[in-house]
Specification:
745 residues, mainly beta, Neuraminidase, Methylamine Dehydrogenase, Chain H, 3 domains, five-stranded antiparallel sheet, four-stranded antiparallel sheet
Length: 745
């Protein structure tokens, strides 16, 4: 039969229910059925207006709606901040019938021209304060607010464990996986599992969780071991798309497997949890449906015979989303059942679809001209429309441009070429956090590893490392510094100091550390006689020179963040008490407190610890503090110039020289969203941006690079000859983003 791709689902087989949208709510991102057969739907605001989410109970037989709560009535929402506009794929059911869920944000603050979550991540008044976790009694409408599990983060998908004490959830911006103990309120962060924006979790019969990164790489969490496992399984979109490859829907099959489907240009994977065997069933796109500009899936449900249904949205000529049926386990092919439109109300996307006990399919429309609404369809009466079926009277719809700020809201580092090295695609995730990075002669070298020392080598572009080699088996890198040229000193977790030849790919034990000395950080090399400066966990300082260790008298630094600036081979500059600056003479083992002070915020001098710095060619000292303040000292160390800070929190660290008179460095630590900064006398203190290769704006959308999104930056390096800046990740799901031709001020 010749397919008819322009016919709609017959209206006589459907029922239309408009969801509340008078205030501008235009979406739904949770539509669920409880174990006892009750349906719940969240009405949300997306992109345009500063709205709060609503939760309704939906009666499938009649279409009746009952409001349970408006988030604005149970949680104080400031008139200046980004609101809790959604409840997104986070509803689950406690054993006593109560619902657990969390808020999410994709709506602007009242005075913002567009949604700018990341741009206001550190903003205390206008940013999103963080998602709240709620437990809801649907019989009494009582809402228990547990609070904000992760400040500043937006919860983007969640699910209870088989042990209902624990609720597991994903963070939108940072891409971390978390667990909260509902009895103690303790929150555990398992680290990064996605670049960002991956919302779906599914459990197998044993209670193990599955999720994926934004780029479609799967992981599994086992509550019995409390460990995340990188499955080294990825979606392979038939079209080769690089966009929105994350796992978005799942079904449990009658043969105890999981059907998993990706978001854009999707394929269906069948995963056997016990063997991890994978069957690739192919594209969701029917053979007779053309697609040049990509296609997406909306909703994913199976009837009593496990025939699957889903929405299919193509992006060539205007077309609403269509309903597709596929008897996949029965060996069938995808069939077009018609466009989803009712009374001229075209659907642009279906967020979820659920069957009721009568076999009727309830589909929720979102993000369109008439959204949100529920269309209930008697699918048993549907057949693929033939040529005799009337064409739908389509009403072309173009989504508004919500980017009212434009380029002024771009956060990425601007460069001629950008290329992500996705270490997580080639190594075990636990080994991908980078301790040290070095670039020269067209090559990038990294050192990392969780239990051993692993060296990688790559070019300035491309996804694949040229070499991955374990060069030391007995310990992982704890601290690393450049030795000279292409060599690095590495302090390992087994208390060894190694000298690594990055190009040669080898290492040797350079220093034998006495058992009674437990070192923590390498601070400097190239002291007199080639000595090393090292600290322990208490902040005591040792010099290693000519085969022996010497603990320096009257010298102490902040153990975790304090930094020592080497003025020359004998003199050191560091913080004293509060905002004091001390000069220390290594040979004399004596110190002098300078008259000039470290930069500080009035009343926060206790946060003025120097956390990074370098000396320019003329002797000028450029330094940064724990409170994020940048300042300079004249060569005579008598005069200070202060340049301020980026945000209200977060240190400046890892200073390197781009030239004799220019400095690059890192803003932020574990909790901040890291930036790279530039300093020069001519241009002052300038933010270069975030290491964020996310293709959500006009400048990045066409890049061929893999996605990458680093929040906690471990290190930066710059190759003058190749004009290449490399930014390395300190996180579990690690990568390096390489920039050539950076637009410096």
């Amino acid at each position: 039969m010749k397919p008819n791709l322009l016919a709609a689902i017959p209206e006589q087989h459907a029922r239309f229910i408009q969801l509340p949208n008078a205030e501008g709510h235009n979406a739904v991102w949770d539509f669920v059925r409880s174990p006892n057969g009750r349906f719940y739907v969240t009405v949300c605001g997306e992109n345009e207006k500063p709205l709060t989410a609503l939760l309704y109970e939906y009666e499938p037989k009649t279409g009746a709606l009952r409001l349970i709560f408006d988030v604005a009535k149970i949680w104080i929402v400031s008139s200046e901040e980004m609101p809790p506009s959604k409840i997104h794929t986070s509803i689950d059911f406690l054993p006593d019938g109560r619902l657990i869920m969390a808020t999410h944000n994709t709506a602007p603050a009242p005075n913002h021209k567009q949604w700018m979550f990341e741009q206001h991540y550190e903003h205390p008044w206008e940013g999103y304060p963080g998602s709240i976790l709620m437990i809801v009694n649907p019989d009494t409408n009582e809402v228990q607010v547990k609070g904000i599990p992760v400040p500043r983060e937006s919860i983007y998908g969640g699910m209870l464990g088989n042990d209902p004490r624990y609720y597991y959830f994903l963070g939108y911006m940072r891409g971390h996986f978390y667990r909260i103990d509902l009895e103690t309120n303790e929150v555990k962060d398992y680290g990064k599992v996605s670049e960002f924006s991956s919302c779906r979790l599914v459990k197998d019969a044993q209670g193990r969780f599955y999720g994926s990164s934004y780029t479609g790489s799967f992981w599994r969490y086992d509550p019995t071991t409390d460990e995340i496992e990188d499955l080294k399984l990825s979606f392979l979109p038939p079209s080769g798309t690089k966009h929105r490859r994350q796992f978005i829907f799942a079904l449990h099959t009658p043969r105890n497997t999981l059907l998993l489907v990706s978001n854009m240009d999707g394929e269906i994977i069948e995963l056997h949890p016990e063997t991890l065997e994978v069957t690739r069933h192919g594209s969701i796109l029917p053979d007779h449906v053309p697609s040049i500009n990509g296609y997406g899936i909306g909703g994913f449900a199976a009837d009593k015979n496990f025939v699957i249904y889903y929405g299919l949205k193509t992006h060539d000529e205007y077309c609403p989303i269509r309903l597709v049926r596929w008897d996949l386990l029965g060996g069938g092919k995808p069939e077009n059942l018609g466009l989803i439109t009712w009374g001229g109300k075209d659907s642009q996307y279906i967020c979820e679809m659920i069957f009721d006990d009568e076999g009727l399919l309830h589909m929720v429309d979102v993000c369109g001209e008439f959204s949100p609404y529920i269309l209930t369809v008697d699918v048993d009466k549907l057949e693929p429309p033939g040529v005799e079926a009337a064409h739908a009277a389509l009403r072309p719809y173009v989504e508004p441009d919500y980017n009212g700020v434009g380029k002024a809201a771009f956060m990425h580092i601007d460069a001629k070429e950008v290329s992500t090295l996705p270490l997580h695609q080639h190594m075990g995730w636990k080994d991908t956090a980078v301790s040290y990075v070095y670039a020269a002669s067209g090559r990038v070298y990294t050192l990392g590893g969780q239990q051993s020392l692993i060296l990688t080598e790559s070019e300035y572009s491309g996804n694949d490392p040229l070499r991955i080699r374990t060069i030391y088996e007995n310990g992982a890198p704890l601290s690393s510094i450049q030795a000279h040229s292409s060599r690095a000193y590495v302090l390992t977790t087994d208390n060894k100091i190694l000298l690594v030849d990055l190009i040669g790919g080898s290492c040797e034990e350079a220093v034998v550390v006495p058992q009674e000395i437990k070192l923590k950080r390498l601070l400097h090399a190239d002291l007199d006689e080639g000595g090393l400066l090292i600290s322990d966990s208490e902040g005591s300082i040792f010099v290693y020179s000519e085969g022996s260790f010497r603990k320096l008298k009257q010298l102490q630094i902040q153990p975790d963040e304090g930094h020592i600036i080497k003025l020359d081979s004998n003199r050191l500059l560091l913080s004293g008490q509060d905002d004091e600056i001390v000069i220390y003479d290594i040979k004399e083992e004596s110190s002098e407190v300078l008259n000039v002070k470290s930069a500080s915020i009035r009343g926060r001098m206790f946060k003025a610890t120097i956390t990074g710095g370098v000396v320019l060619s003329d002797g000028t000292v450029v330094a940064g503090t724990l409170d994020g303040m940048l300042f300079c000292l004249t060569p005579d160390l008598q005069t200070r110039t202060v340049y301020g800070r980026f945000y209200s929190n977060g240190q400046l660290r890892h200073f390197i020289k781009r030239s004799n008179d220019e400095v690059l460095g890192i803003y932020g630590g574990v909790k901040e969203a890291g930036h790279v900064f530039h300093y020069s006398r001519e241009h002052g203190f300038v933010d270069l941006g975030r290491p964020r290769m996310i293709k959500d704006n006009a400048e990045l959308n066409g890049r061929v690079s893999e996605f990458g999104n680093i929040h906690h930056i471990s290190a930066v390096t710059y190759d003058n000859e190749g004009d290449c800046l490399c930014v390395a990740s300190a996180e579990l799901y690690g990568c390096v983003i390489r920039y050539t031709g950076v637009v410096f001020p």
